[in-house]
Amino acid sequence: MGRVLFGLLVLIAAALGIGSGLLIVYSTDLPQVTELEKFRPSSITELYDDQGRIIGSFALQRRMIGRYEDFPKVLRDAVISTEDKDFENHFGINFWRVIGAAFRDVTSGSRAQGASTLTMQLSRNLFLSADRNFRRKVQEVMLSLQIERRFTKEQIFTMYCNQIYLGHGVYGFEAGSHFYFNKPAKDLTLEEAAVLAGLPKAPNSYSPINNPDKALRRRNLVINNMLEDGKVTADQALKAKEAPIKLTFQSDQNSLAPWFVEDIRRYLEKKYGSDEVHEAGLRVFTTLNMDLQKTANQAVLDGLSAYERRHGWKGKLPNVVAAGDDFASYQHPDWDNAVEPGAYFHALVTEVSPATAKVKFGRASTTIVPEDMKWTGHKSPQELLSIGDIAYIKVVSIAGDKIKVTLEQDSGTQGSLLAVDNSTGDIKAMVGGRDYEESKFNRAVQAMRQTGSSFKPYVYTAAVDKLGITPDDTILDAPVSFPSGGGMYTPHNYDGKFEGVITLRRAIADSRNIPALKLAERVGIRDVIEMAHRFGVTTQIQPYLPVALGAAEITLYEQVAAYATFPNDGVRVTPRYITKVTDYDGRVLEEDYPEVRDVISAQTARTMVEFLQQPVLHGTAYAASVAFKGHALGGKTGTTNDFTDAWFLGFSPSTTCGVWVGFDEKKSLGAKETGAKAALPIWIDYMKVALKDKTKEDFVGQPAPPANAVAKKAEPASPQPPPGDDAESH
């Protein structure tokens, strides 16, 4: 008997020794759980507009950090009932399940199986590899025991909820709730919470996007688990299981102002590094206004649509079948955008008949009928569309499941818009083109384009500053030739006519070329160019007289910043994107203040404001005066040779906005496509919203124009130009 007892003790000692040895071996390089006390998972860097609304984000992992109280009881019950029923009672591991799983692994020679508690899943996700083997399982157990010793159940559950992967690049239940249901986790219903709680086991397999049927079965299993645990009643469970899975996807936040957001990303990465920007959860407070940006987006797209309709249907649509792409799996990048009235999409034509054409865009589909394409001059969709075509459409209205659209056209025309607050330089809206997904080139900032007559204000400013001219001074508008390196330069006016002696007020209102060239010659073209550089134009401009009519290439960004100097009493404020950046904990990393400098005297600026009111009140930009009766406005149209570029730069006392329209390859927009016709309507659509609460603005040192100002003519001899008539040759 003594020998048996002695042998048993020896075996126990040997087992303990072996166990201790294994623990020592498997604990080698084991992470310190104390790191969790200061651990913060990778989180999203968020961009906010001037009202604190999210307009963009950067992240390697889409994660939103939540607190324990942010996760509602229905979600906590769903997770615990499904993943770890004894979570509130165990000390980190379910001992008997671990022993059983380990025994199966040893006897079968297979990889470690299941038995993971929430704490074990947390330890694995935070510290260990995804490999399934006995060593990792032992380490998982040891880490779990340490976590349970140092943290409360609420803390452990919160860390788990913020760390768990839920598919599609989404981490954590708060981000999952926003991604799948477009709502915070605290607002989840029972059936929605059950969908999310069913994802951790196999996020891709149970994804309601990839596998809706499997997701539905998994959701109902979660609800049954909750029913078994007494977390819901039978009636609640039955009602929830009968409900379909209704996903409300969060639209891509970066799609609101993609060119603006991209400029900020490049700046932040250069200053703070890519890891900090995509993982540290910075808070970036920008100058953009979400409502004004939406207005700008719509104004540009509608303006381009109006241009396309003026020039008729051109066809030549891309076709996915002809291109050899997979028809069934085709996805256009803009299909991630929200389907709402006013939105434009590239839609896939799936069926065509003489009377209708069915199109698909993202998860939505609709039918195009002859009424929706009347502007093309064709009566049957079959005349224009084929299966596999990528048609450009506009969503007109949505009534339940019925979506009404119109057939549009994308012939390659582009437009850009930039709007700033005059006093601060804050960029309130930026549009860099028609479709960011098709072209990320930012035409508001990067495109160097000839300016046409929108360059003339630099000529007039130089003349005011150097010669002391006033709007009531006169000049002779008559045939003239100027000596140039290749002989004589003989310019002409847009209309081919000469008006004789006219005031400078009328000359700039009608954008007469001869007066502008005569002023440039008197001032000296080098002084005109130097004036443009004082305003912030960085282009190296050759000192040739035709530059006065806009032969120089300048960006919209520089033009807008320059024009804002006039209502600012001669002070140039550099446009800014950001007001403040903080880290995740709220510590301020940087605060950006407006950069200002004097460009011209206040008197010169006020004289130029008076000059630039003339095109709006009596000249090429008269349509703006009609749209804003009695509002103090100034601005200048611009059209280049062969109508390749159309501009309008305009300002109120508080806001300056610039618009450009053209093709990237610098081909003609078509006859008579002037700045007043192509660009000004976009400016008007934007400014109607930007100025709706600013009806009593006055320019500094000048009274507001009378309410009937648009009905008055600058001179009895000058006929009022009809809206859209732009008297320019450059």
Radius of gyration: 34 Å
Number of strands: 25
Can you summarize the main beta sheet? 5 strands, mixed
**Gap from first CA to last CA:** 114 Å
Strand content: 15-25%
Number of helices: 22
Give the strand order, joined by hyphens, for the main sheet. Answer: 2-1-5-20-21
SSE layout:
Elements lengths: L1 H25 L18 E4 L5 E5 L3 E2 L9 H11 L11 H14 L9 H10 L6 H17 L2 H11 L6 E2 L1 H9 L8 H8 L14 H17 L5 H9 L15 H15 L1 H6 L3 E4 L3 H21 L33 E9 L4 E5 L2 E5 L12 H4 L5 E10 L2 E7 L4 E9 L5 E5 L17 E2 L5 H12 L6 E4 L4 E3 L2 E3 L10 E4 H6 L3 H11 L1 H10 L18 E2 L1 H8 L7 E3 L4 E5 L5 E4 L4 E3 L3 H17 L3 H6 L6 E6 L5 E7 L3 E9 L11 H16 L40
Parallel strand pairs: 1-5, 3-4
Antiparallel strand pairs: 1-2, 5-20, 6-7, 6-9, 7-8, 9-10, 11-12, 11-25, 13-18, 14-17, 15-16, 19-22, 20-21, 23-24, 24-25
Descriptive overview:
By secondary structure, this protein is of the alpha+beta class. It is 36% helix and 17% strand. It has a 5-stranded mixed β-sheet. A hairpin with a 5-residue loop joins strand 23 and strand 24. The radius of gyration is 34 Å and the shape is elongated. The N and C termini lie far apart (114 Å).
